[in-house]
Design a protein that fits this description.
The protein is built from eight helices and twelve strands. The protein is α/β, with parallel strands linked by helices and 243 residues long. Strand 3 and strand 4 form a beta hairpin. Helix 2 crosses helix 5. The longest helix has 12 residues.
Length: 243
């Protein structure tokens, strides 16, 4: 007796998650009588956080659905922009996305990042702090304890940032976050931070901000043009502040 099977048709770029030897316009998956549709999709390599809608023979179904033998399943990627779980959104990045974390903070996005965090720590923190976990680790994406997660596309930081902004379209408020620790920046009088400035900086600049978490002092230094370019690329029109 032949095995019971369903056919999965992957939309968008979801086939990127499927091993090369199995890729094709359609995937035939064997039913075991107990697995849900969500489990069957993930068995191909596609993580559920990257799936938008599931349709069996044209009818929309949840991941908990048990498909019948011979069913055809259309697997659509998440819709962009993806609805945010909270506004403003809160993000948590894995240890391999440090460059992305800094650029997101430049744009004013609440972005936590810890080089010492392990997968279990990230999963727990994402759930406890209601943060969207951004990662390129497929194992992290498959952790059921993480309520909101996304795979970051792109090898270069600029590509990764463009992907995150396209996927979530978050509200941006540049130059309001500390790029070192994610604390909020507050305007501060020059006299209040003069003892922390080099003589040339004291002579040249008048406007400063200070992180309310780590105390880092910011001003528009030599790197300001590069940061302004990040802000312009993100499509934000506003007067630059201390950086």
């Amino acid at each position: 007796m032949p095995d019971s099977t369903v056919v999965l048709r992957l939309g968008g770029d979801l086939s990127r998650f499927v091993p090369a030897r199995r890729r094709g316009p359609e995937l035939r998956v064997t039913l075991d009588g107990t697995s849900t549709l969500g489990h069957l999709v993930e068995s191909t390599g596609v993580p559920l956080p990257e799936v938008g809608t599931l349709r069996v023979d044209g009818a929309r179904v949840p991941p908990s659905h048990h498909p019948a033998d011979g069913s055809t399943v259309d697997v659509a990627p998440v819709h962009r922009p993806q609805p945010l779980p909270a506004t403003p959104p809160r993000f948590l990045l894995d240890v391999h996305l440090g460059g992305l974390a800094r650029r997101m903070r430049v744009l004013g996005l609440d972005t936590e990042y810890d080089t010492d965090a392990h997968d279990a720590d990230l999963a727990e923190r994402a759930a406890t702090d209601a943060r969207i976990l951004l990662t390129q680790d497929l194992g992290l994406l498959r952790r059921r304890a993480v309520p909101h997660a996304a795979y970051v596309r792109g090898a270069r930081t600029a590509e990764q940032l463009a992907d995150v902004l396209d996927r979530f379209a978050p509200p941006l408020d540049p130059y309001t976050r500390c790029t070192a620790c994610n604390g909020e920046l507050r305007p501060v009088r020059k006299d209040d931070v003069a003892d922390r400035l080099r003589p040339g900086t004291r002579r040249t600049y008048e406007e400063f901000s200070r992180c309310d978490r780590c105390g880092q002092v910011y001003w528009r230094g030599a790197h300001a043009r590069a940061l302004d370019a990040v802000v312009r690329t993100a499509g934000v029109a506003r007067e630059p502040g201390p950086t």
